[in-house]
Automatic annotation (TrEMBL):
Transmembrane portions of the chain: 7-30, 60-80, 92-112, 118-139, 151-173, 199-218, 238-262, 282-302, 311-330
Source organism per UniProt: Simiaoa sunii
Coiled coil: none
Protein name: Iron ABC transporter permease
Principal subcellular localization: membrane
Membrane-protein topology: Multi-pass membrane protein
MF-aspect GO terms: transmembrane transporter activity
SUPFAM superfamilies reported in the protein's UniProt record: ABC transporter involved in vitamin B12 uptake, BtuC
């Protein structure tokens, strides 16, 4: 039995890794200008010509950003689901992404309106403050309501309030700023630069390593707070770390790509079914890889499905993610009845 599980885990990781490699090549090669695989390899070495510029300046940064931020979003969803013991908790549903979006919009409108350059670090900081603000309201509501469904409804309401404030801010923005904010608020990996990729890689890598270090305490926490405390886990510290780390990941995503829906809910659930386990040491890297696969696939569709018109990434992730959420809710309802 143990041997079968190990083989299942190995096959699942191989499939996820292969999926990332295939989708990386597809995202780089497919578009308005098609670049064959042989040319990708040659332009990768020479960096000369129009195709090389498209590859290195547009598609490769965008593809890497989709993979990194997609993985970060799925990991943030996994942390929130573990924290709340709720399978449909996620940055978008709980209003955390909307809070980050609101503060980023405020900062962008104010700074751009005063012709001040907006740096990547400042956007991440603004998004983090917004995410923490929304998370604070969610935690406050968690103390007031016992039902998890009511907690989710509270998160959705917080998201609507933040979105309403964002729309109010956009109303008083300059025309040029409105265009930028509108494109960003729909969610998109377009316009990524190597500087953006560098910053997000550092932030996500450091956060990922910290989450990996929490694997054993998380496994104990999943079995109950009393059990975890008996094993010496500091529950309060663990909860604070879960809140901060999930907020950092959510902030990084919103700062660079805008709010992206359903990835944080759907991917961890699909990964649990694929692996047949809830062990954090396996789920943490698996969720990251699964999120990368999901977002790379959705970004490819967003660029090519209605070409030359590009869809918002949230539109595509909702098409594939929303049915998963409905399936989770129906399955949970059946288990409770049974």
């Amino acid at each position: 039995m143990q041997q079968r599980r190990k083989i299942r885990y190995l096959i699942a990781f191989v499939l996820l890794t292969a999926g990332i490699l295939v989708l990386l090549l597809c995202n780089i090669g497919i578009g308005t200008v098609k670049i064959p695989l042989t040319e990708i390899l040659t332009t990768g070495r020479t960096k000369e010509g129009m195709n090389a510029r498209i590859l290195w300046e547009i598609r490769l940064p965008r593809t890497l950003a989709a993979g990194i931020l997609g993985g970060a979003l799925a990991l943030a969803g996994y942390l929130l689901q573990t924290f709340f013991h709720n399978p449909i908790a996620g940055p978008f549903v709980l209003g955390i992404s909307s809070g980050a979006k609101m503060v980023v919009a405020l900062v962008m409108v104010f700074l751009l309106g005063n012709t001040i350059r907006v740096s990547s670090g400042l956007l991440i900081l603004a998004a983090f403050l917004g995410a923490m603000l929304s998370m604070g309201f969610v935690l406050l509501m968690a103390r007031k309501v016992d039902s998890m469904s009511m907690l989710v409804v509270s998160g959705v309401m917080i998201g609507y309030i933040c979105s309403a404030i964002t729309e109010l801010v956009v109303t008083f923005a300059e025309d040029a700023d409105i265009v930028n904010l509108h494109n960003w608020s729909r969610g998109s990996f377009s316009g990524m630069t190597w500087d953006n990729v560098k910053v997000m890689s550092i932030v996500v890598a450091v956060t990922f390593l910290m989450v990996i270090l929490l694997a054993k305490p998380l496994e104990a926490y999943q079995l109950g707070e009393t059990y975890a405390q008996n094993l010496g886990v500091n529950i309060r510290t663990l909860r604070i770390l879960l809140v901060v780390l999930s907020s950092v990941l959510s902030a990084c995503i919103v700062a660079f790509a805008g709010p992206i829906s359903f990835v944080g809910i759907a991917v961890p659930q699909l990964i649990r079914k694929l692996f047949g386990t809830t062990k954090p040491l396996l789920m943490i890297p698996a969720c990251f890889l699964g999120g990368s696969v999901f977002c790379l696939f959705c970004d490819l569709l967003a660029r090519t499905w209605m070409a030359p018109t590009e869809l918002g990434i949230s539109t595509v992730t909702a098409i594939f993610g929303a049915p998963v959420v409905l399936w989770i809710m129906v399955s949970k309802s059946r288990r409770e009845r049974g």
